[in-house]
Amino acid sequence: MAPKKPSRVKARQPRGFVDRTSADLLAQERMLGIIRRVYETYGFEPVETPFFEYTDALGKFLPDSDRPNEGVFSLQDDDEEWLSLRYDLTAPLARHVAENFEDLPKPYRSYRAGYVFRNEKPGPGRFRQFMQFDADIVGAPNVSADAEMAMMMADTMEALGIERGQYVIRVNNRKVLDGILDAIGLEGDAPRRLTVLRALDKFDKFGAEGVRLLLGPGRLDEGGGKGDFTKGAELPDEAITRVLRIFELADASGEARLDAVRAAFGGHPVVDEGLGELDQIRAFAVAAGYGDERVLIDPSVVRGLEYYTGPVFEAELLFDVVNEKGQKVQFGSVGGGGRYDGLVSRFMSTPVPATGFSIGVSRLQTALKNLGRLGNESLPGPVVVTVMDRDRMADYQRMATLLRRELNGEGRPLVPVEVFQGNPKQFGKQLQYADRRGAPVVVIQGGDEKAAGKVQVKDLVEGKRLAAGIEDNAEWREARAGQELVDEADLVAAVRRILDRHAGRS
After folding, report:
1. Residue positions in the annotated binding site?
2. In CATH terms, is domain 22-51+86-184+235-370 a member of 3.30.930.10?
3. Is the peptide bond before 141 cis (omega within 30 degrees of 0)?
4. Annotated binding site for L-histidine
5. pTM over 0.90
């Protein structure tokens, strides 16, 4: 009986995860460099935390803390402790600060970029792994730190080429929202409060009528299939009408929005405290030159995470795009954050105030592509040293090393150099490879050239141009388009002349 052939493993990508191309990664790196530069001008310094944390360190702020593997990807280590892939970058920072509290300067300004993981159902634009770029100030109790966060986000948008009028940083205060919930009779009713906040957070998606249903009896999704009904908060009509007033100020100034909330809910101590902090943030921003067109007080902003305790922020892009359904919609949020004075304190006996902001890197990168601010980034094509004689590989490596060293001097743009490492038998295949890699130059040295101390340098760009006017193959071979024979000692200079010519340098 013939042995059974081993089955091949099927190549398949896990749902909710994506492969990323060179162009995507290079564009992302350029974008991150710009953001990093802005953060550093504000005095923030980098820190990195592990991908894994102890599950209890991530705490009750997970989607479902009763089941360690719901919402997060978790495993048990060899001493049966639960570990989870980080769900965001804020909870790991809180653990880091608490663990190193005595050694860190206070306030502690830090930034970090990294992947986070969500064990949730993937969908269009919703991934299980994605990158965030956060900045946080830990140990700053004053709302001037929150104002600084909002202003830094405005600077970040503009540094990335997003012009004024194409973005706005919206600022609210969870104290305002919490006070409003108290005022409509939900004091102490944690489940319904959360239902209301989640409903308000969907205003951009469902509009006033959709949110009214979510605040009331509930909402049946379009299509009306089984399981599409979302239970509402079951608020009375009068309470729903009062709450929805905070969304009726679309074209009003920040000051007018504050006045409207005061008119509807003023006199409640928590609402008044939150409005007072928003007044201060607006005053700080305006004094620094950040008017409503950049930093806008907006009582309709709702941040979904439960750990926010004060001011909350949303970076919103205002230009239109076409969604997956072919509808023209506003691009929307690319980041958010807020004050989380209770998160670090979970690990300590003393209160530790903190505020921070998180940018959704992939979403912001998509926005920049829509605006034409990020092109198809790519590394320059390499100079390819071809292989005419396998036994002389050491000679080819020596030439490549010389070219790498001499062409990549300080202040000069990157010039990759590689030796062809495929099968060298068919020389035409090597030229095809170089062409596919976008190589501007190939270096050719056979046995005859080596004996004569010579080397062929072929300008592929010029060769294509010249070859376009040659119809006869014999004529093409005779012309040796774009190719010159130089002394070995002149190899670097000859390659540099070609590269400079194509770059427009003399």
Report:
1. 88-90, 118, 132, 136, 303, 307-308
2. yes
3. no
4. 88-90, 118, 132, 136, 303, 307-308
5. no
